[in-house]
Amino acid sequence: MKKHLQFIFFFFISVKLLSQDGSLDNTFNATNVGIDGLVLGITVQPDNKILVSGRFNFYNNISTNNIVRLNSDGNLDSSFNPSSGSDQQIHTSAVQPDGKILIGGYFSKFNGVSMNRIARLNVDGSLDTSFNPGNGANDIINSIIVLPDGKILIAGYFTTYNGISRNRIARLNTDGSLDASFNYVTGANSNIEDIVLQTDGKILIAGDFSTFNNITARSIARLNYDGTLDTNFLGNGSSTISSIALQKDGKIIIGGYFTTYNGTSINRIARLNSNGTLDTSFNTGNGANGTVYCVIPQPDGKILVGGDFTTYNSSSLGSLIRLNTNGSLDSSFNVGTGTNSNILDIALQADNKILIGGGFTTFNSIEKNKLARLNNTPNLDIRDYTEKNVFSYPNPVTDILYIENAINSRAYIYNLAGDLIKIFDVENNKSNVNLGSLKEGNYILVLDDGENRKTIKIIKK
């Protein structure tokens, strides 16, 4: 992968001209054969490999039932072998810190073994038999989150888990068993489509429910970490909310089929304040004329929106748009005629390129079956950290590189050709990364907390 970097120091600068934002990246899956069914979920792993799930039997004419892992160029990752895969569609996947992969959907078997709607795979795609959900869920699992303590949050259409009543949401222990400490009264009275974990541990849920634990909560709610309803959250949608996402500032983006929110007319996309009230500074005009299935904030604050719509604020479009931070249409994002059918999921890669999946067979009139990658210029507004003395040592480094004062940052290591070599998170005041596997030479460390970025030249010896 390549990433544009504008270095503010005296060392080597690597710059490569990129195509216009929203244009098709023809270097991704150059065969154009793609998927024969439907893409429901895309997950980018920390090593930049790409998990694609849905309802399909082939990728580039190679048999792979409902899940596939790709290298960053879109070619099949031959090290991932799920054998016969699942017997029904896989809606979602999540990668644990140890590299194991949780999958959820409508399947009842994986690789011939009874696994009802949830399973865990080893890094190579084989079934992890140490994960035992018993009878599993009795209906679709739409969303999975791996929690910081290793427990697993699931949500969807189910009403039981391993034979125990659990309406549409449950928390699991690391071995797949039900976590009884997650407070349960009656849960949601209808389907949950999406869940998001806030930085404070609270849980946002969205769907087409009207009550949670017998308390009125229409289409959206926030739970405390123990599963009880957070009654300080003041949200109220008119109908289904399909997708929910958090901005860096704590504000909440929602998309779906709703036409009002808290009594205010707003069509299918909105931004909320952290307490659930409508953010009136986000002006979507007439909004979208069809369902919004996915909303993804970019690091620069702009928002990617995908779904099954043809207009946004009366402008003719094709199921994928990018909004400015105030809700207006970003005219610098040009998808041409866009896709010929719906977009069901969007994922951002580390280099800011955009992966889209769904039911489409063309993008801007070019054949692209159900999966494509689009060009997207990284945010070049590089500002140094000014409030914290961010630094790394030793330099030169032999094995372990220590990083201080870059808490809650994403770290990228590039070679001087601009190739992304390594990506990891810095979560503590003092973190370390093992660079023993790198070849001797010069590299660039980029630390980015979403608002500020620092670049440091490091020498590997």
Largest sheet: 4 strands, antiparallel
Number of strands: 42
Give the distance, in angstroms, between the N- and C-terminal Cα atoms.
24 Å
Average pLDDT taken over every residue: 90
- Low-confidence parts lasting 5 or more residues at pLDDT below 50? 1-18, 380-387
Q: What is the approximate shape?
A: globular
- The tally of helices reads 0
Structural classification: mainly beta
State the CATH architecture of the largest domain. 7 Propeller
Adjacency order of strands in the biggest sheet: 39-38-41-42
What fraction of residues sit in β-strands? 35-45%
- According to CATH, the homologous superfamily of the largest domain is YVTN repeat-like/Quinoprotein amine dehydrogenase
What name is given to the CATH topology of the largest domain?
Methylamine Dehydrogenase, Chain H
How many structural domains in the coordinates?
Answer: 2
CATH class of the largest domain: Mainly Beta
Whole-angstrom Rg: 22 Å
Percent helix range: under 10%
